[in-house]
Design brief:
Elements lengths: L2 H9 L4 H14 L6 H13 L7 H11 L39 H8 L8 E4 L7 E4 L2 H17 L5
Antiparallel strand pairs: 1-2
Length: about 160
Amino acid sequence: WNEERKAKAKEIDLTPNEVYTLAAIVQKETAKVDERKRVAGVYMNRYNRGIKLDADPTVIYAVKKKNNDFDTVIKRVLYKDLETDSPYNTYKYAGLPPGPIAMPDISAIDAVLNYEDHDYYYFVANPEKPGYHKFAKTLRQHNNNRQAYVRWINKMGINR
């Protein structure tokens, strides 16, 4: 944490620990460094408006923590997972989880500190561009994108 990063954190009204916590979510959400600022922008839009983050990586972490099994690979979050009672489950609890779910790298930290300013509130994996996401401003747009993703993941036979 150099002075510039500390100043940016203060500017976006987050503590360094909160930046670190959100950066871990962003990193787990996308391995694509060029997409991280946009993903961080979605989470900041939700966070700044008091909307639950609804971040799949936090649910995966909560399930693994509850089961005390961090070796399990979870490629698909199930509806029952969203009910996991954990302060890390951002589908259940608003705000940031109590701490980071992973160790983010500097690109994820900088993505949060320099998040993209946009009107997106939703995103889902993009089956046409593996590793990337489709972003949406409205729930209707998101649901259309989500349906395409669900069809793709079902076709791929990914059940967990």
